[in-house]
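Per reviewer request, we include the raw input and output of the structure prediction for the construct analysed in the revised manuscript.
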Amino acid sequence: MTRTATHCESIVPFDFAGTANDGTAYSWNTNSVAKGTHTITQLVTLPGGASEVDSASFSVGASVAPSITTQPGSQTVTAGNAASFNVTAAGTAQLSYQWKRNGTAISGATSSSYTTAATTSSDNGVQFTVVVSNSAGSVTSSAATLTVSATQISVTPASVSFGSVLTGNTNTQTIKLTNSSTANLTLSQAQVSGSGFSLSGLTFPVTLNPGQSTNFNVAFTPAGVGSAPGSVSLVSNASNSPLAIPLSGTGVAATFLLGTNPSSLGFGTVRVGGNSSLSATLTNNGNSNVTISSVTMPGTGFNASGVTAGTTLTPNQSLTLNVAFTPTAAGSLVGTVTVVSNATNSPTTVALSGTGATATTVNVTTYGATGNGSTDDTTAINNAIAALQPGYQLFFPCGTYKISAGLTAITENNVAINGQTGCAAGRVTIRNSGGGSTILQVGASQSLSSPTPITATTADMDKTFQANFSAIGAGVGDYLYLEEAVSTSDTSHSNCGGSGCRGEVLKITGLSGNTATVETAVHHAYDLSCCVPWVQKLLNPVSGVSVHDLVLDGSGTANYALGVLNAVNLTVGNLTAQNVAWSAIASINGYNNSYASITITHAGTNNGGSIGGSAVSLQQQGNLNVNGVSISNMNVGAFGFIPFREANGTFSNISVDATGTGSGRPFKTNSSSHNTFNNISVNRSEAAYYQGITLEYFSHHNVWNTCKVTNNVGSPNNSGIALYGDVSNGNNQGSNHYNTFNNCTVTGNAGFAIWVSDNNNNIEINGGTYIGVAGQYVIAFDDSSPCCSNSAYIHNANIDGPGSIGIYIENGSKNACINSNSFGSGLSSGIYVTDASDIGTGNIMSGMSSNLNAGTCAPPSVPANGASLTP
């Protein structure tokens, strides 16, 4: 401005902005001006003396209180990391900030953002707010919550017990580590302590994403005898670091023990030139391999087979020692089989005894039999049978003896029915042309006394049981049939489950009032709380009969070739039975009977039979010994070999070829308990769901050594080995518990290799080879409802495809123990379990998947006969 300006508001100092003569600006400080609108006027003298009035208006506004435009957000961090919070606010400057933790001001936290120190688990859940202020007021933000995620490591199993390990040997167990938190886990160190323990399988650092797992191995190699504690310490960024995993194990000295059962074999009286066979089982009862170095043959008249020098038995493995007694002279004979090994109790011995008797020979030709194959010799042979007395021999010279009806039953004790050996035309043949008959029958009938109840519950393998024995006239030396229905109200003895009641035949060796001691043991639990058990006496059993060196030919019309009724201490050997409508051999009510070297063709049925219908039917038996049976070319629909209500037997070297049957079960056990099955071979079951070997209803505590099942055909499922339980009576021992399969081979079948269904517990598969079929599981436990088949123990097996799943533990079946199996690449997956209690270790998966939890396990218990279920 070039002239003087006069303010109308004289209270305000002159500071109106203008331009001075020198070009500088004037300013007016409005800080002291009251809020509102103001007008400034000024008189301006213009050049030349004229003047004008200028005016200007301005407003002084009110300050704006702060407001929050972006609230601080809740944060989630892993323990050890910092968290940052931010706020955005508007309002008249200057704005000031104060952050608070759970309502308490944080020193120095006075900016629009705040970063915590490194968090700990104690910071979890803390709430942060911020107060924003200016001259016009203040505002508090909403609370932001801090979540601190604690990294956690979990281990399965939480502790490892190696059990007993031989000194100098190594037991390796697998431990599974899992990041069970939502943040990355980093393992930085692992240390193992304790004598004999070592660790492998981890290379540090190890980073696991949330939910990720990894395995490592811990080994125990005891240097000495005694218990050894230890631990694994894992260091990581987890909140539970360091994590300790307790270890324990016991070093044990090697034991080498070779046992025999029984320890003596008594053959009774055998005619001179005759033959009787019995067997004993040799078992490695130690914890280390036993190697047999020599087997010394017994004395004159005895011959042993089945055990040879150089044989090695693993712990709990068994071999069958077969002994034949063939006296060459009259008199009492004794002998001993001596087995030398590295066992500490070596030598192991089996005492032998028998009596050779000179038999009076009844020659059928003396009574008019011709043996020419065309003359009816029925009457002549029956006359010869009528002449028999105890100790006699019924002798058939070389030839073929035609009969038109079944022969008279053999009812005298200790007689031999023998065909001449060395015949040019082959074995002596008895050919039956009459229909509906039994060619040769031993024993008059299958008669039993009336039943009397078992009066006290008896545990499996008890040596005694109680009943009113006087009511049935039973005493020492008598033979008894025990049976049990599965309902406490079953007075008719008819409620026996799907395939009949369980039962067995026993011999009384001692009697005190109503308590009987038996020769071996009872082989079921006869339980009054759930069931109705009873006992009957075998009436008039025939004893000591032998049948050897014959062909029994039914010409397709006879029902049975050999019928054995109420017979004890029987021996049958070198027998061919063929061309019958029903059973080639049908036996009911027997004890301590022996069958060896049997050939059967064109026999068996599944529809009919008064004393059995399968090619071989062995019902209601005790102490059976069967060694060497070949069954082939069976009748259409035939069942093959069936032991039924039978216990404490040994079955060896039995083969069944079901080719051509179209259906039928080739090999079936029913209520068979505490048996040993050696080298059972089944080929080509030909119908869906008939299976190769089936175990049904109450078949428990059996050991199957080196069985073989191949080439079953039929769709949709014709498995190799199947176990069917009595579902409705499973709680009353209705299923097939404690069956062990050692080193079996199951291949080429049109279904599962092994199918365990219907409540069968404590099944062991030890070693062997199991190969599946496309689209089917290889080994399946509890494929059908209801649940479950618990406590399976599968170890050291080779499992391969084709197939969908190698081992499938279904329906929530619990406590499976799956160790050290090898899986082939032909499978879709390796192991699938359905309960967290199913665990194992040491399996070689070959790239196959597995959801098995890592863990140390062994079978939960040992069967009552001490057989198998090895750790």
